[in-house]
Every structure is written in C-alpha cells, then in structure tokens.
Write a structure and sequence with these properties.
It is built from 4 helices and no strands. By secondary structure, it is an all-alpha fold. The N and C termini lie far apart (36 Å).
Length: 65
C-alpha cells in the first residue's frame, strides 16, 4: 500500500489521489482494528475505555496535562 500510494504523496498536493489513498488507509485500519477486537472478543466501548485508561497513565499524557 505504501509503495502504491507513494506518488500521490510525493507531489505535496492533497488532490483526489491523496484523498483516495487516505480513504483506503482508513478502511484498512478499521478492518484491522475490527479483526483485533473480534479476536479478543472486545466491544468498541471496552476498547475505548481501555485506551482511555492507558492514555491517562502514560508519561506523555502527564506532561501535556
């Protein structure tokens, strides 16, 4: 996917090629995340809660707050 989309990103413009590549990437991430959640039998709410809890305990979050 990266090699295929390389041209769309090289020119620095955000035209239709860039939008299409972005949409394809979002679709891929959604699919992978759903597969991960299905494998772990986790609901979207459970994942959101777990991510929120993890973010609160990271040093990065403490520095920014």
């Amino acid at each position: 996917m990266v090699e295929e989309g390389k041209e769309a990103l090289e020119d620095g413009e955000r035209g239709e090629d860039h939008k299409a590549l972005h949409q394809e990437y979002k679709t891929l991430v959604d699919y992978l995340l759903k597969s991960f959640m299905d494998d772990l039998q986790v609901t979207p709410d459970q994942l959101e809660k777990a991510c929120g809890m993890a973010a609160i305990s990271t040093p990065f979050h403490k520095v920014r707050v």
